[in-house]
Amino acid sequence: xxxxxxxxxxxxxxxxxxxxxxxxxxxxxxxxxxxxxxxxxxxxxxxxxxxxxxxxxxxxxxxxxxxxxxxxxxxxxxxxxxxxxxxxxxxxxxxxxxxxxxxxxxxxxxxxxxxxxxxxxxxxxxxxxxxxxxxxxxxxxxxxxxxxxxxxxxxxxxxxxxxxxxxxxxxxxxxxxxxxxxxxxxxxxxxxxxxxxxxxxxxxxxxxxxxxxxxxxxxxxxxxxxxxxxxxxxxxxxxxxxxxxxxxxxxxxxxxxxxxxxxxxxxxxxxxxxxxxxxxxxxxxxxxxxxxxxxxxxxxxxxxxxxxxxxxxxxxxxxxxxxxxxxxxxxxxxxxxxxxxxxxxxxxxxxxxxxxxxxxxxxxxxxxxxxxxxxxxxxxxxxxxxxxxxxxxxxxxxxxxxxxxxxxxxxxxxxxxxxxxxxxxxxxxxxxxxxxxxxxxxxxxxxxxxxxxxxxxxxxxxxxxxxxxxxxxxxxxxxxxxxxxxxxxxxxx
Length: 493
Fold this sequence. Notes:
This protein has 493 residues and is of the alpha/beta class.
């Protein structure tokens, strides 16, 4: 038997849930297809459990940095309690609460794996057999990404950890090798060092956090070293084998690195290999290229959308959810029969869905129907110690765009808020200025708990707030955010 809906969303993670919710608010009927846990990677194997694992070590470090509190810290991280708290955060990998929310919104949840059988048509293989599903108006692919295991000789055979195994671990390996110096690599190196593992971080390049400003990666590398992590730059595994004494990693330089587990954190790929994309003339296993309305550019007719990791535009949950809100609004305005031409993102009603006016809408850079922040104002937080938070363009990225750049930095320990925060507070803030326009196009913070400072910078970048106006945004005293005043003073205001 077939089922028909106005909109079908493939993928019930945080991004797909947001698309379905946003599109369904208009009254369109929406089906959400998920073959695993509703809530997806972020809820069970990424953002939420990883931060739960990192939090105990961060709290202990914060207490130890404050005279008067440090004396109360009498031990190290209680690993069993940390794992138990992680299990609470992930709801014991039980998605019933997420399912309850989906059902409460009027969205129809279809359990199973979806494959395209043609335009707007899918087969969903569920527990009771395949069901044919048709979308009257739109299909949204929100299937996320999966960890990549690089083609290193013997690596796959030793069954390495990925982020999934690391965040759901029930035991702490005595020796852990982490391959990769990106966000997952440095966060998990921090967490397992807190838990007592002898961690070795194997980095092919010459710096950590390659997408951040160089000083951020340097600070994290120094902190990991202080934590007892061995950081090997310019190194990569050439072969891997399991022997009686553990897993041997040969790097071609000196003796093998011998560990109990290997965590691969070298990148991710979009989950598009088994969706039947070839029936639409699209290439499986590749990102789905989209425009700023998140419409797949390789599919005719304006019915197919892709959002989140699967589009290759975003790699964070928060940015994916932003894109989800955009595409949900586009679909609601474009296909809701109650929408007027004035409301429609391309100036057309549901009966006349020509996309000819899309270019006119694109001229409004901050239209709610265009995901323009993906290019100008992507925020990222790394929950290491120190934390790293940045938004917008790095100095290098701004210069590559041909901007007239000036960089202004300030040490966080020199503001009054840092003095009262911790005895050994250290960190740095840096802004990237577009001199021609007099606005901030990028900002980076490194230091304890700087993640909570990032949104102010995000607002400044997205709002393109002129520096002479930003001068009148007075930071409270004594807080670490007083660094905004010092940055502007350093910039000459």
